[in-house]
Design a protein that fits this description.
By secondary structure, this protein is α+β, with helices and mostly antiparallel strands. It is 45% helix and 11% strand. Helix 4 links the parallel strand 2 and strand 3.
Length: 218
């Protein structure tokens, strides 16, 4: 299946990052070579001075403790890995979810292998809501980044049931819930998401989703 346009852009960004890291390593290698050349020149000048003044008698002095050379600056490997992971996890607005959503009134979702009892219990409120995020009023890009970070953090903390408020779209042009369909696409693309259903009226109704997350890996 061809990659969606947004994903292709993300892969290109990853290649750009890798190219930048390669350039950084080349600059560090060049700097090391320059230091080696300067040291070689200094030793040559020292040898020339010694030959010019002839034999000398070194002064008596206490034994000095040799100092280890200053180690090179560490490469921020974890930071680079985090940036690459974020690029890989970029969420697409073009992702087609029509074949993945259950054809019920609330357009719920359950990942293949998840029994229908899971969404039934989720809809019935048998899972306690442990945390929520309110995306209502955010721009699309802002909401996408906020939701991705929220799901990652909730998963890492071992949370299982969260609520995502996307709003009912009453203030949007045409009074259509702009974020609702996008939030569904984004959640389905997150591997941490096992299932979601529309919230009950008391928990936000058509303006919110209850999301069941996979157990965190230990």
């Amino acid at each position: 299946m061809p990659l969606p346009p947004k994903a292709i852009k993300s892969l290109a960004d990853l290649k750009t990052l890798q190219h930048t890291l390669a350039e950084q390593r080349e600059r560090e290698a060049a700097a090391a070579a320059a230091r080696a050349a300067a040291e070689k020149k200094r030793l040559a000048e020292q040898d020339l001075f010694a030959r010019a003044i002839g034999a000398t008698q070194p002064l008596r002095r206490k034994a000095a403790v040799p100092l280890a050379p200053e180690p090179p600056a560490p490469i921020p490997v974890q930071h680079q890995l985090d940036e690459e992971r974020v690029l890989r996890e970029s969420l697409s607005d073009e992702f087609d979810v029509t074949t993945l959503l259950d054809a019920d009134d609330a357009m719920s979702f359950r990942r293949p292998g998840i029994h229908t009892d899971v969404t039934r219990k989720l809809r019935a409120g048998e899972w306690s809501i442990q945390r929520q995020i309110d995306l209502h009023g955010m721009r699309s890009d802002e909401a996408r980044e906020a939701l991705g970070a929220f799901i990652r953090d909730a998963y890492k903390q071992g949370l299982r049931c969260v609520r995502v408020v996307h709003g009912k779209g009453l203030g949007s042009p045409g009074r259509q819930p702009v974020l609702k369909a996008k939030v569904q696409r984004w959640l389905i693309q997150k591997s941490e998401t096992l299932a979601f259903v529309q919230a009950k009226p008391a928990a936000g109704g058509a303006g919110a989703l209850l999301v069941l997350l996979a157990p965190a890996r230990r």
